[in-house]
Design brief:
With 54 residues, the protein is mainly alpha-helical. The protein has one domain. The protein has 2 helices and no strands. It has helices at residues 6-19, 45-53.
Length: 54
């Protein structure tokens, strides 16, 4: 994506589900600035998942 904002992400996800209608999708968004705040004292839930995957 050229930039990360809600409108762009919503458009991307809408198009993605049209292509993969009957599939399950695991979308990994690493280092996406618009999801995390600049300072987060606790790990977001997805980071806890990554600890088990690595």
């Amino acid at each position: 994506m050229p930039h990360g904002d809600s409108a762009c992400m919503n458009t991307y996800l809408s198009e993605l589900v049209k292509v993969f209608v009957n599939d399950k999708i695991a979308l990994i968004m690493d280092q996406v600035e618009f999801i995390l705040s600049p300072y987060s004292p606790d790990l977001p839930p997805v980071e806890k998942l990554f600890l088990h995957i690595k």
